[in-house]
């Protein structure tokens, strides 16, 4: 992997500004951290590389898991999470997140989030795969993320000490002497430096490294790559969770169909009309996501079909439209009548379980840098994320990272950072073609099923592409973004090759079973060290 990759520049010659806390990313984690840091009286800057609403949060169709009913308990939620995590969860972290979730829900309501309620005015609690209790909060049926994003953005904009910048692409973290001092951005086509006492990375996931992702275009693993280059350790990068049900219609966007629909009673069928999950798992269609995704792929192989199908024809269509308006609209756009026809679905990359090695307070091995949300690896999710645990992690970790960042002493140090990279080629690459090649190779060799031969070929291809990209002079964010994607894809492939077993979402055809000696073992990787087990 390449070292620092920016073309030569000197921070003395670019525009600069200063903040107490700099936050990169405007999903639930970044905005929660920004609001809490602002409440603590800190001068806060939060940046996003596209529009402020562009995040995985805004696209989330599912909900938030929290113990809200008297019939439920923290112990039940903890156990469900541990069961899904397949032996790799940190139970202490799981308990802290689960017990912190109700306070996070109260914070969202305080910020103006409007959750769905029943006839009595109580919050309506649904159920999703892997959960043994009804504990999923939704908003506007299957548009929970958009409602959360709306409320948090509106609240954040009420603070005079909080500046929010859109279309501000983070190129790299600025480090010196084992400390992060800020970040370099491209804003309005010019370089811009923001110095800060503490930097919080909340850049989200990596779904766009693959074809047919449920993630928005911004999910290109930029935070993972920046942290790696800055000297941080990435952990569990072999674990990409594939959501079982993305709409599969030629020419249309691969839109996620919420798991709550199966919780409401939808069936998964193959082209012969068989409910293939019945008899394969005690929870049938509500089995953990990794189980459902693998079984869909198995049925596709067995029947020779390009997809499986979601059947809602037996459900009350009026109630269906009221509860899942986004799903019904999606069907209308695809010219599918859900009352008469099955909806074609197949798995797609959805959530990156691995990330920067950190604790729940966001602390990393680099002083001044905190990491939270999907870009982090805290030990919450293990080898398979329990449905709707991601947004509550963003809430709890965002709050705690903000408090941690607020403790950072003002150091006032602005190092004269200079990056240089030898340019060996000015040959222009076809970025779109290389990006499409990357996405195709990741799906082919590091998809729901993988093996050593495919991962070895993927590493070979990625190293070759990365060398070519690293030799190019670049001028646009898309060029840096592609290199980020290649760097992280390579870290994922190398990590996956080291885990010689199947566990959670990591399923190897050549090692189809878990190995007892790898239970509790994590794969780590850094810029200067090949992956290792710890």
Strand content: 15-25%
CATH architecture of the largest domain: 3-Layer(bba) Sandwich
Calculate the mean pLDDT score and round it. 92
Briefly, what CATH class of the largest domain? Alpha Beta
What is the number of E strands?
A: 21
Task: Quote the CATH topology of the largest domain.
Answer: FAD/NAD(P)-binding domain
Radius of gyration: 22 Å
User: What oligomeric state do these chains adopt?
Assistant: single chain
Name the poorly predicted regions: 1-8
Structural class label: alpha+beta
Shape: globular
Helix percentage:
25-40%
Number of domains: 3
CATH evolutionary superfamily of the largest domain: FAD/NAD(P)-binding domain
What's the story with the biggest beta sheet?
Answer: 7 strands, mixed
Number of helices: 14
In short:
The protein has 534 residues and is of the alpha+beta class. 33% of the residues lie in helices and 19% in strands.
Provide structural commentary:
With 534 residues, the protein is α+β, with helices and mostly antiparallel strands. The chain folds into three domains: 9-239 and 353-406, FAD/NAD(P)-binding domain; 242-349, Succinate dehydrogenase/fumarate reductase flavoprotein, catalytic domain (Flavocytochrome C3, Chain A, domain 1, Alpha-Beta Complex), CATH 3.90.700; 426-529, Methane Monooxygenase Hydroxylase, Chain G, domain 1 (Up-down Bundle). It is built from 14 helices and 21 strands. The protein has helices at 28-39, 56-59, 74-85, 91-110, 144-156, 222-229, 260-264, 289-303, 317-323, 325-333, 390-406, 431-445, 452-470, 477-498; strands at 9-10, 15-24, 44-47, 64-65, 125-126, 136-137, 162-165, 168-176, 179-187, 190-201, 234-235, 240-247, 267-269, 308-311, 343-352, 355-357, 369-371, 376-377, 418-419, 523-526, 529-533. The strands form five sheets. Strands 2, 3, 7, 8, 9, 10 and 17 form a seven-stranded mixed β-sheet that branches. Strand 9 (179-187) and strand 10 (190-201) form a beta hairpin. The radius of gyration is 22 Å and the shape is globular. The two termini are 21 Å apart. The relative contact order is 0.18. Residues 1-8 have low confidence and may be disordered.
């Amino acid at each position: 992997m390449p070292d620092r990759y920016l073309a030569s520049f000197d921070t003395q010659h670019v525009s600069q500004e200063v903040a107490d806390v700099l936050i990169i990313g405007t999903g639930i984690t970044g905005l929660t951290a920004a609001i809490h840091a602002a409440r603590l009286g800190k001068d806060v800057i939060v940046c996003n590389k596209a529009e402020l609403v562009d995040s995985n949060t805004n696209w989330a169709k599912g909900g938030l898991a929290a113990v809200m009913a008297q019939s439920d308990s923290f112990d039940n939620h903890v156990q469900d999470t541990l069961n899904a995590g397949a032996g790799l969860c940190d139970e202490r972290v799981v308990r802290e997140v689960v017990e912190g979730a109700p306070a996070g829900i109260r914070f969202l309501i305080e910020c103006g989030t409007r959750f769905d309620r029943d006839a009595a005015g109580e919050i309506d609690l649904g159920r999703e795969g892997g959960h043994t209790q009804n504990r999923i909060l939704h908003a506007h049926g299957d548009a929970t993320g958009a409602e959360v994003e709306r409320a948090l953005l509106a609240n954040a904009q009420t603070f005079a000490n909080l500046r929010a910048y859109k279309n501000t692409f983070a190129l790299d973290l600025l480090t010196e002497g084992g400390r992060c001092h800020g970040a370099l951005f491209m804003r309005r086509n010019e370089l811009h430096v923001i110095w800060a006492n503490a930097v919080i990375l909340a850049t989200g996931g990596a779904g766009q490294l693959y074809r047919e992702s449920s993630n928005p275009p911004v999910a290109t693993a930029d935070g993972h790559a920046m942290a790696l280059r800055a000297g941080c350790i990435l952990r569990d990068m072999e674990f990409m969770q594939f959501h079982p049900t993305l709409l599969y219609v030629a020419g249309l966007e691969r839109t996620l169909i919420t798991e709550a629909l199966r919780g409401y009673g939808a069936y998964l069928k193959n082209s012969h009309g068989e409910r293939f999950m019945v008899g394969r798992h005690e929870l049938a269609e509500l089995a953990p996501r990794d189980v459902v995704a693998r079984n869909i792929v198995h049925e596709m192989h067995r029947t020779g079909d390009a997809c499986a199908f979601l059947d809602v024809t037996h459900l009350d269509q009026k109630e269906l439209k009221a509860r899942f308006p986004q799903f019904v609209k999606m069907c209308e756009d695809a010219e599918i009548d859900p009352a008469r026809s099955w909806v074609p679905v197949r798995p797609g990359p959805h959530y990156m379980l691995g990330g920067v090695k950190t604790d729940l307070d966001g602390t990393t091995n680099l002083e001044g840098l905190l990491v939270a949300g999907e870009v982090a690896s805290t030990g919450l999710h293990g080898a398979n994320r329990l449905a709707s645990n991601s947004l509550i992690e963003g809430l709890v970790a965002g709050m705690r990272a903000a408090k941690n960042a607020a403790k950072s002493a003002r150091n006032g140090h602005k190092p004269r950072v200079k990056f240089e990279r030898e340019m060996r080629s000015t040959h222009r690459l076809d970025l779109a073609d290389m990006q499409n090649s990357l996405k195709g190779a990741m799906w082919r060799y590091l998809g729901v099923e993988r093996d050593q031969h495919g991962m070895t070929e993927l590493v070979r291809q990625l190293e070759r592409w990365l060398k070519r990209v690293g030799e190019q002079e670049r001028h646009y964010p898309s060029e840096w973004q592609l290199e980020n994607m290649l760097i992280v894809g390579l870290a994922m492939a190398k990590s996956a090759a080291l885990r010689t077993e199947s566990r959670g979402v990591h399923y190897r055809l050549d090692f189809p079973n878990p190995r007892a000696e790898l239970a509790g073992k994590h794969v780590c990787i850094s810029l200067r060290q090949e992956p290792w087990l710890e």
